[in-house]
Amino acid sequence: MTSPLADLGLTIPVVAAPMAGGGTTPAMVIAAHGAGGLGFLAAGYKTAEALAGAIDTVRAAGVPFGVNVFAPNPVPITPQDYRAYRSAVQGDADRYGLTLPDDVVDDDDHFAAKIELLLAQPVPLVSFTFGIPDPDVVARLRRAGTIVGQTVTSLREAATAEAAGVDLLVLQGIGAGGHSGTLTPDRPPADVVLADLVAEVVHGTSLPVVAAGGLATAGAVAAVLDAGAEAVAVGTVLLLSDESGASATHRAALTDPHRTETVLTRAFTGRPARGLRNDFIERHDASAPLGYPAIHHLTSPLRKAAAAAGDADLVHLWAGTGYREARQEPTAAVMRRLAGEA
C-alpha cells in the first residue's frame, strides 16, 4: 500500500511539528517544505478566522502543508478544586496586578468552526490531538481530499485511531515537549524508548507512523526510522530557528545553562505537558489539579504577563528532552541536518 505521505512531496523524512501558542509560524511551515520536508500549522488557541489567515499565507506560497487541530477531550474539574488552585496561584498574579478568572471557563477551541473551514477550503493534511474526532468528521475530511492523521501515545490509542478511519498515526513518545497527546490525561504515557514504541505500533497496526518526542539529532532520527517510522516530527529543536515565533523569554530559557531539566507537569494547563523546570512548577505542581482547558484559561493571563516581562519562572517553557540541541539557524538547516544531509 502506498503511504499517504508519498503524495506530499517529501524528499527528507522530517516534519516540522505544530507548536500551538506561537512557536510555529507560516514562515516555518514554508521553510520546512523548502528543506524537502513538511510543515504543520498549529490551529490550537486560534479562532477559525485566525487559522484561515495562516492557511492563506502558506497556500499563497504554493507548498503542501498540514494543519493540527485540538479535538475535544475535556478534563473536567470541580468548582472547589478550581477555586483552591486559583487561590494558590493568585499570589503570583498579584505581581502583575492581575485578577484571575473567578469561574471555570470551558470551551472546545472553536472545533466545529475549524472543521467547517477545513471542509470548505480543504488542505492536504489535517491531524488531531488530545482526542479522536467522530468517525463522521474523519470521513468528511477524507471525502474532501484531505489526508487525516491522529496523535497517539500507545498501541491501544493507535488501534482506536485506526478504527476511526484515519490515514496515518503521529506517535508521540514521552520525551516530547509541550502537551502530551495522550487520550487519558489522568494516566500519562509509559516511559518507553521511542524506537521500541514505534516498532510495537508498526507491527500492531496497518497505518504509517510519524514518530515524535525528543528527537533532536540525526542519530535519534535514524533510530526511529530503522524501527519502522516513515518520518519523524520535530518541534523543540526548531524553537530557536530563524522562523520560530517563540517569545524572547522562552528562547532565553532554552539556552540558560542553569535550566538543566525538563519535567512533565499539569501546573500550567491542567493537562500533562513537558517543559523546563522553573519556580512555578516547583511550587505548584504537587497541588495542581487536572482540569483542561479550565486551568489553561486560569493561568493564561499570568503566563502572558510574565512572558512579556521576561519572567521565565512564571512561564510555561515547553521543551522536549532534546532541547539542548536547539540552535539559532534556519529551519531548513535544522531539518536537513536531522535527515543526515548536513
Automatic annotation (TrEMBL):
<dbReference type="Pfam" id="PF03060">
    <property type="entry name" value="NMO"/>
</dbReference>
<dbReference type="InterPro" id="IPR013785">
    <property type="entry name" value="Aldolase_TIM"/>
</dbReference>
<comment type="similarity">
    <text>Belongs to the nitronate monooxygenase family. NMO class I subfamily.</text>
</comment>
<keyword id="KW-0560">Oxidoreductase</keyword>
<dbReference type="GO" id="GO:0018580">
    <property type="term" value="F:nitronate monooxygenase activity"/>
</dbReference>
<keyword id="KW-0285">Flavoprotein</keyword>
<keyword id="KW-0503">Monooxygenase</keyword>
<keyword id="KW-0288">FMN</keyword>
<dbReference type="GO" id="GO:0009636">
    <property type="term" value="P:response to toxic substance"/>
</dbReference>
<dbReference type="InterPro" id="IPR004136">
    <property type="entry name" value="NMO"/>
</dbReference>
<protein>
    <recommendedName>
        <fullName>Propionate 3-nitronate monooxygenase</fullName>
    </recommendedName>
</protein>
<keyword id="KW-0216">Detoxification</keyword>
